[in-house]
Specification:
The complex is a heterodimer of chains A (218) and B (249).
Chain A: E1 6-15, E2 19-29, E3 34-38, H1 45-53, E4 60-65, E5 68-69, H2 73-82, E6 83-86, H3 90-93, H4 99-109, H5 114-128, H6 143-155, E7 161-165, H7 173-185, E8 190-195, H8 198-204, E9 207-212, E10 215-217
Parallel strand pairs in A: 3-8, 3-9, 6-7, 7-8
Antiparallel strand pairs in A: 1-2, 1-4, 4-5, 9-10
Helix pairs in contact in A: 4-5, 4-6, 5-6
Chain B: H1 12-15, H2 18-33, H3 38-55, H4 59-79, E1 88-92, E2 95-98, H5 99-123, H6 128-137, H7 142-171, H8 180-210, H9 227-248
Classes of the chains: A alpha/beta (218), B mainly alpha (249).
């Protein structure tokens, strides 16, 4: 039997002032699956992704990733090498001075050799069509450019799974289409996208859930 | 909002290794700051002048950057001449300006301009991230370096947030005046900025963790120490030797 790459069971989490955000939530993601999760603002979509990455600790529940239970920060270090998370606000994600160095940040953390990192940077720039941005300062990029660069920084880690948090919010149609095409063309990718954009989710996901009242409905 | 036009040039100064620059600036600032004798300061003045010609910057731009510093210096001129005992030069009501006070002020003005000019010429001719990398290489505590770098990186973001908030206030008819409402609203705005900056810092840290950050910043581009840097190092060393000689012998 195939083991899910990500498996959540009975996840509950509450925030002060917001009440229960996730309540007894179950979720599994299998290798090769392309899953979309739709939810309204404040329904806990971001929280869900952050729980999978170990950035937020749930109050209750079991997190199994790559077949092993993950509890502490230490357990999640390995998880983060293999799962890429795209943040909602690209300004949070791009902190290096230049685009090139931002793409290199992850691979360098994985202690790849400089030649290899250079090759990866090259590849990512070509893949996303951002060669012309390589030497630009991150903070002078436009909104759409930042999103593409942020996606490149994630893909540069060569992740086994991608988690995308509202990847198309506030993007123009052209950039949205570019991300759509990229996701669809990478057949081997496993990913989970949360968004409230039904149109986009319909195009890029094969399986769709709705996050409501802290639980996922098929 | 932040631009660094000086860092774009192509002079000898621009291509000098940032590690050399940082060391020279630190040493120079220290030696100059503790000096009082005009003879030594005269010798110290050669460095910024030579650097200026090497940098090929426009004098107008440089002077423009010097103005704010001299604003502070001007404040000193308001008080210091009157607060030293000594030979009377002139009186202003009950205040007595002394020769010692004025000389002291002159020396102070001279020194601060020398230090600022040297710092400006050496450091602003390197892109910020070269300086940051250099600080790492000079074994400064990485927390300090990161603090410095992130401050630089996120000032525009915080500024943009500030603009958004103050525009939001404006379109709802907010007009600053000398009243409680203005003070309270401004307080809210500043509070909100701090809160947002804090929350953003959390998100950035999470984003870094998500990409495998474990406490060390690895850099893609390494400095190449060139022959010219060694040569420059030797010249600076000799210059400082001269400065120390004048100072202590």
């Amino acid at each position: 039997m195939n083991i899910p790459v990500i498996e959540l069971a009975g996840i509950s989490i509450a925030f002060p002032g917001r009440g229960k955000v996730l309540s007894d939530l179950d979720f599994s993601l299998y290798a090769g699956e392309k899953v979309g999760i739709k939810g309204t603002n404040g329904s806990g979509k971001t929280t869900l992704l952050h729980v999978m990455m170990g950035l937020i600790k749930p109050d209750a529940g079991v997190i199994k990733i790559f077949g092993r239970e993950r509890k502490e920060e230490k357990d999640f270090r390995e998880v983060r090498r293999h799962i890429g998370l795209l943040f909602q606000d690209s300004d949070d994600q791009l902190f290096s001075p230049t685009v090139e160095e931002d793409i290199a940040f992850g691979p360098l953390n994985l202690r790849k050799s400089r030649e290899e990192v250079r090759r990866i940077v090259e590849e990512m720039c070509t893949l996303l069509g951002i060669e012309n941005l390589r030497d630009r300062f991150s903070h002078t990029l436009s909104h759409g450019e930042k999103r593409l660069v942020a996606l490149a920084t994630i893909l540069a880690m060569e992740p086994r799974v991608l988690l995308l948090d509202e990847p198309t919010t506030a993007l123009d149609e052209k950039t949205t289409r570019r991300i759509e095409e990229l996701l669809v063309s990478q057949k081997q990718l496993t990913y989970c996208i949360v968004s409230h954009d039904m149109n986009f989710l319909g195009k890029v996901s094969e399986k769709l859930y709705i996050l409501e009242k802290g639980r996922l409905e098929g | 909002m932040i631009d660094s036009p000086f860092s774009q040039g192509k002079s000898i100064l621009h291509s000098l290794d940032p590690r050399v620059k940082i060391l020279v600036v630190s040493l120079y600032s220290f030696l100059t700051a503790v000096e009082k004798r005009p003879v030594v300061l005269l010798y110290a003045s050669f460095l910024p002048v030579i650097l200026f010609f090497l940098s090929r910057l426009r004098i107008r731009e440089v002077v423009k950057r010097m103005l704010p510093v001299n604003g502070f210096v001007l404040l000193l001129w308001l008080f210091l001449p009157f607060s030293f005992p000594g030979e009377k030069i002139f009186t202003l009501g009950p205040l007595v300006a002394t020769r010692e006070g004025i000389l002291y002020c002159l020396i102070l003005t001279w020194k601060s301009n020398l230090i600022f000019l040297t710092t400006l010429l050496l450091l602003s001719t390197s892109p910020i991230f070269h300086l940051v990398h250099a600080l790492h290489h000079l074994r400064l505590p990485s927390r300090l370096v990161q603090l410095f770098y992130f401050t630089y990186r996120y000032i525009p973001v915080v500024h943009r947030e500030y603009t958004r908030l103050s525009q939001a206030a404006k379109i709802r008819g907010f007009q600053p005046g000398n009243n409680l409402h203005t003070y309270r609203s401004t307080g809210y705005l500043v509070g909100m900025l701090i809160l947002r900056a804090y929350e953003r810092s959390q998100r950035i840290y999470q984003a870094m963790l998500a990409r495998g950050f474990q406490g060390t910043f690895w850099t893609l581009h390494h400095f190449q120490w060139r022959k010219a840097d060694s040569l420059a190092g030797v010249i600076f060393f000799l210059y400082f030797l001269g400065l120390c000689y004048l100072k202590w012998l």
